[in-house]
Design brief:
This is DNA modification/repair radical SAM protein. Keywords: Iron, Iron-sulfur, Metal-binding, S-adenosyl-L-methionine. InterPro entries: Aldolase_TIM, DNA_rSAM_put, Endo/Exo/Phosphatase_dom_1, rSAM, rSAM_sf, RuvA_2-like. The protein has 489 residues and is an alpha/beta fold. The protein has two domains: 283 residues, no CATH class; 125 residues, no CATH class. Helices cover 35% and strands 9% of the residues. It contains 18 helices and twelve strands. Helix 2 crosses helix 3 and helix 4 crosses helix 6. It is globular and about 75 Å long.
Amino acid sequence: MVIQYDMDLTEKLRILGDAAKFDVSCSSSGVDRKNNGKGIGNSKACGICHSFAADGRCISLLKILFTNECIFNCRYCINRSDNDTVRTSFTPEEVCTLTMQFYRRNYIEGLFLSSGITHNPNYTMSQLVETVYLLREKYHFGGYIHLKAIPGAAADLIEAAGMYADRMSVNLELPTADGLALLAPHKSRKTILTPMRQIQNGIYKSRELPLIDNKTASLPGSTNDNTPDNSDSNFYNNHISTADRFHAPGIISGSSTRNLSTVRPVNNSFVPAGQSTQMIIGATPESDYHIVTIAEALYKQYDLKRVYYSAFVNVNNDDTLPIQNDSSDVPLLREHRLYQADWLMRFYGFKSAELLSPEKPNFNIFIDPKCDWAIRHLEHFPVEINRADYYTLLRVPGIGVNSARRIVRARRSAKLDFNDLKKIGVVLKRAIYFITCQGHMMYTNMHIEQNFITNNLISSEQRKNYEISSHDTYRQMSLFDDYNIKSGV
């Protein structure tokens, strides 16, 4: 390991900004907050982190690690402890300086702050708490803050962090406990799910909703839940003396006499934008069905706002991980399919068991999950546009949430035809195989048959690959020309 001291702030920013790029769990904020007229900055629900607002604005945040030092040796992580790389850390004041200077220059609308684990989880988490405390209370920063919760940190530290952050996230890392045991042996489902449940209950408490017993913290694939609390407790404890185990400068000890029980912002809200998580896809052999089942359980059991999927990149060239000879080996298409399926589960009423099954465990490369489902369930089609209810319309390929709502509103005053649907925003190149208008399909030679529909939907560039691989058996297409799944799933 290379450790460098006396590094200037610009060089630290270069290193720790680059080190944060593999954490993708930081998109839209989902929260509005205006300052009281005395502070600096507002947080808008339209979102941050290089996403696009409803009015077309590109909005961004400062995305950094507090430190790239780490006591863990996760095989997939560029910051793992046995990597020979330059290590550095910010101080809480340095993060505040960067955030405020970038905000005043209108470079950012908020901060995404994650970290490697230095000394132990409690020390690291207390440093993050100190940072967000200073931003809110000393610098009166009213912009968006997304803060990473450190698995294994004490509950009072997680609670204190939640009083200052808009969103928090605890990365699941890998879909199963077996995957963690193989690639991240010092992490476990228990240390990850415990703060996730605490954040959920903190949100419920602030909204005066019933709390959930932490004993229910479980997910599919927990057959081998190796727990550092028992088998690896010495690993945590030996990295810092007992007297300092729960301490960091400023918040609990050192120059300040503040106590966590008295550290509270004025508005007293807890993680108002909810929590998210991230799973690495392709480092371990789980199927797509396994992954979407876990994501569905996370949404139901932990009330997450988002599950993010990160295509595995073998940044360490570790021969125990999947070999990637070039960028084409990175499973980006698989990541894209999972995001499409995730959108269907969150906004279209689909269940994971409808999209995949043990008999059909993976998404196909030729067709998106919604078209895949529709072609496998042609008994539900065609749908009459002028009579179908809203939830039936959502199941039609080419009709999104917005266009379904517009259809329901428009047909109150007139019978709709295909020209009307085009103006409304329906993607007719997919929808025409599954709908009728006033009892008629768009073309008289349309056939409600799997291979006919699939052949017509597949792009001309991929038709040859489809014909070679399918041998008259239904397969899926690629829809890379339609990334805007909000309006055209």
